[in-house]
Amino acid sequence: MNRRSRHLKLLKVLLGPVLLIQGWWVRKRTPVLPEPVKQPSGTCGRGPALSLLLVGDSSAAGVGANTEAESLLGQLITRLKPHHTLSYTMLAKTGQTTADVLAELEQTVAKPYDVVISALGVNDVTSQVPVDRWLQQQQKLIACLQGKFTARLVILSGLPPVGEFPALPWPLNAFLGACADQLDHCLTQMCEEHRGVCFHSLRGYPDTATAATDGFHPGPDVYRHWAEYLVTTIGAHHQAD
């Protein structure tokens, strides 16, 4: 256990009762926003074929967007279909952890994908999944995507700045933010060890890219910036091929 992990473990012990009460309070008062994507799979566009799989939690499902077009998937479709005959599939649900996605992928019929994008980690943070176990699950996720689904490019999205979520009071925001920072840092390093895997940071977005109305999920501008980066990465990878 490294120094950061020991520090977080100590904080969890010292602040345990406060964190539990605040967590209950946040869940009780935070509005439940819908998943806007109604068509999680389809084909559209024109040009060279491109198959895309999006997996993850509520952010991958577009929670926080007002319409399907404003979701992460919707933004990706808008930007990719003018240049590709796009075949897309979304496997994402509110509340999913990395372990949940792995279990779903194990039950999913194998199909090759050119690009797979994941958005996972926040629920692992709130569920307090240990760092070592989470990294092992991310390793298994990469192996599954590159093996069973023969993904040519895997893009793992990092953890958002959880400590800045408006819905979270202090000290809960500071504790969960530090946990998210730790996972984000470790995921960055892990991606560098794998060929065909890219890391995308969800940090450093413009101030206009604000949270959704619940103060917890990404707002439409966050999804727009996120999609713009992903499309740039996908384009660069295909040019390199």
UniProtKB/TrEMBL annotation:
Residues 55-224 form the SGNH hydrolase-type esterase domain. Keywords: Hydrolase. It comes from the Bacteria. The keyword Kinase does not apply. One of its GO terms (molecular function) is hydrolase activity. InterPro entries: SGNH_hydro (IPR013830), SGNH_hydro_sf (IPR036514). Gene3D superfamilies: SGNH hydrolase (3.40.50.1110). Pfam families: Lipase_GDSL_2 (PF13472). The keyword Hydrolase applies. This is SGNH/GDSL hydrolase family protein.
